[in-house]
Write a structure and sequence with these properties.
CATH superfamily of the largest domain: Metalloenzyme, LuxS/M16 peptidase-like
CATH topology of the largest domain: Cytochrome Bc1 Complex, Chain A, domain 1
Largest sheet: 8 strands, mixed
Radius of gyration: 23 Å
Helix content: 40-55%
Number of helices: 16
Order of helices and strands: HEEEEEHHEEHHHHHEHEEHEEHHHHHHE
Strand content: 15-25%
Distance between the termini: 70 Å
Structural class: alpha+beta
Length: about 450
């Protein structure tokens, strides 16, 4: 079949970036949309010999029925267990042969399979990824084997205090039955009924072309990428599933559970999160919150660790998984006998401690500089492009002009903007606690 018969449209967005000799270092982001809806996106970086390839289904744990929570993550494990053309051992062999690094990960709204490779191996790497994505067979014996693997992973996470405290902070804000609060990996009970037929049905429903995105970043041509994809990703039929963007996320609603505590005997240290929901808002709002979080991080760390020596880690940050999650949090980790004192200081500093305008100026300058190099590697570009797609923004030109847009917004942010946002959002009535500590 001819190349043109596959293509519905090809959009070119962004600009070329050249060095002082006029050599093109960074070409436009290109996106081909096939007639079956498959999106193929490339970003050419001529200054690197490393290529990042990813194949992503716009389906994550948010699509899991409550009684099968964890099946999206289970599916991610299973595609490596054999395809129509490769055994599990052959998949492992080819990945080791062609990839510098590789992995797969399941999030709330997507499941991604990726590999980083040398330019000379990009076609082979892409072919292996497309094979496991398009042709998994889910051998029944491997389904049972992986149930034990994932069951062990679930048990391990329950005993990792850092992970537990973080997951409980999402529960405290959104509720245990919310999409953020219920998590991704599931429980031993919800994965107990996963079987080959369920996985085959999932593949048919969620791994259709129109629900898939392929991103390749590096010194490779768009035409070569499209040609390789068309060779190994067959034209598909429409699926009933459509990616959702209208997920519930009300930043003004009160915390679902203002206090979530997990106590267990034998713990030697405690971890606390003090957090609130925030609007995901505009780019400007997110940058203001990021700078505010950095200023609070500075005073919290300085007081609890540098001055008092009460903690190993402490600080503050913003955390987004748009469009589902947008939060501010502060946290600290300390020995059990110091917990009450550290908790009280953390709360006081988040709500009341003055932040310095000189710190703001330093962080604003740092943000300006770091944004200029934020998208340098093939992995960073791949992540940024995929993030835009998942958040429902098809304007990939935004990423091509990332530094220009960020720098203009940063220049207009003032210290008063931070103080105003703090008064509006970082209030005691909006905050919740997640605590992991020892049980007396």
């Amino acid at each position: 079949m001819l190349f043109v018969e596959f293509v519905l449209e090809c959009r070119q967005v962004g600009t070329f970036t050249k060095n002082t000799e006029g050599v093109v270092l960074m070409a436009k982001t290109l996106m081909t949309v096939r007639r079956d809806g498959l999106r193929i996106i490339t970003k050419r970086l001529s200054y690197t010999q490393q290529v990042m390839c990813s194949v992503t289904s716009l389906m994550g744990s948010a699509s899991d029925p409550a009684e099968l929570l964890g099946i999206a993550h289970y599916f991610e494990h299973m595609v490596f267990q054999g395809t129509k053309t490769r055994t599990r051992e052959e998949i492992e062999r080819d990945i080791r042969r062609y990839c510098i690094s590789h992995n797969a990960d399941t999030s709330f709204l997507r499941t991604r399979y990726y590999g980083e490779c040398a330019k000379i191996n990009f076609e082979k790497t892409l072919e292996v990824l497309l094979d496991i994505y398009c042709n998994p067979i889910f051998p029944e014996d491997r389904v049972e084997n992986e149930r034990g693997v994932i069951g062990t992973e679930i048990s391990m996470r329950k005993n990792e205090e850092d992970i537990l405290a973080f997951e409980n902070f999402l529960v405290s804000l959104y509720g245990a039955k919310s999409l953020p609060g219920r998590g991704i990996i599931g429980t031993k009970e919800t994965i107990s009924t996963v079987n080959r037929n369920l996985l085959l049905d999932m593949h048919k429903t969620y791994y259709s072309p129109e629900n898939s995105v392929i991103v390749v970043v590096g010194d490779v041509s768009h035409r070569d990428v499209v040609k390789n994809v068309n060779q190994f990703f067959p034209i598909g039929k429409p699926s009933a599933y459509r990616q959702r963007f209208d997920w519930p996320n009300d930043p003004d609603s009160p915390p679902a559970e203002p206090l979530v505590v997990d106590e267990k005997q034998g713990r030697e240290y405690s971890r606390v999160y003090f957090a609130c929901k925030i609007p995901s808002g505009s780019l400007r709002d997110r940058l203001v919150m990021n700078l505010l979080a950095k200023c609070l991080d500075r005073v919290i760390y300085d007081e609890l660790r540098q001055k008092r020596g009460l903690v190993y880690t402490a600080g503050a940050s913003d955390y987004y998984k748009r469009p589902l999650i947008s939060t501010f949090y502060s946290c600290a980790q300390t020995e059990v006998h110091n917990f009450a004192q550290v908790r009280d200081i953390l709360v006081d500093y988040v709500l009341n401690e003055k932040i310095c305008e000189s710190d703001f100026e330093i962080f604003r300058e740092s943000k300006f500089v770091t944004s200029s190099i934020a998208l340098e590697t093939s992995r960073e570009w791949n992540d940024a492009i995929l993030s835009q797609i998942i958040s429902g923004n098809s304007d990939l030109g935004f990423i091509d002009n990332y530094f220009e847009k960020i720098s203009k917004v940063i220049e207009g942010i003032t210290f008063d903007d931070l103080l105003k946002m703090r008064l509006e959002l970082i209030r005691e009535d909006r905050m919740s606690f997640s605590i992991v500590t020892n049980k007396d």
